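sorry for the late reply, my laptop died twice this morning and i had to redo everyting from scratch. anyway the thing you sent over, i finally got around to it. pasting the sequence first so we're on the same page, its 272 residues, then the predicted structure underneath. double check i copied it right bc i was rushing
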Amino acid sequence: METQTKYSVSGGYPWQVLSGTGIKIAGIILMAMDHVHQMFIAQGAPYWLNWFGRPVAAMFLFLCAEGFYYTRSKRRYMLQLLGGFLFMAAMNRVLSVIMPMEHIALINNIFGTLFIATYYMWIIDCLCEGFREKRPAKVFSAVGGFLLPFVVGLAMLLVLQNNMYRVALLLFFIPSPLFVEGGLVLVFLGVAFYLLRKYRLAQAGLVLVVGALTWYFSRDTPGDFQWLMVFAVIPLLLYNGQRGRGGKYFFYVFYPAHIYLLYCAAWFLRGS
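ok and here's the structure:
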């Protein structure tokens, strides 16, 4: 039986009743409701289902920062996320070609966001180690690693500027902080969770600030409810610092499986 591994420092307050598994289950339920709206909008799925998915990315980035800090192998953790990203990039492409639907763009792939966030968590660790051990070479390598994803993305745009189809195809399979789901904002949020992991109130406050800024810059955009991510502070503050039991790889399976099942169901129902 899997033990309840202690994760982050917790104040042990009575309201802290959610383990990492509990947050994961809540996120999965909310995410599924959001994707029901995405896939069945043509069949009249109510728009308010979309609201439930807005806090989910922040919830999973929070768990990702916790898991990355405590994992026995950071490299394996990152490779698992990269593998999930590449699998979904390929499946998204295949299904979009063999089962096309005009009203649905199959680009869901939060694995890319989680991978890039953990990549920069790793870069920060390398940078800190370089300064602590007084190793300039390691510091310069970390700085180069920080810039690498941006340089690769810009190089592709410059080299293939006359063939945007190829650019889009490459970006589909190469995670970039500029083009992953949620973009730089979510990557920043994930890294900030990692840096602030001992300060739960600061993490919650950060979510509120990012949500408020998101509302401000999108307030004139009809139908943009991403600011509802502020509700991610609820599971963050209820988190008890325990990983919880079971479901270690459940998200890796459930996330792509439910998206593709819903997509296929929507394709079969498209004429009804």
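Residues 1-5 have pLDDT under 50 and may be disordered.
thats about all i looked at so far, will dig more tmrw
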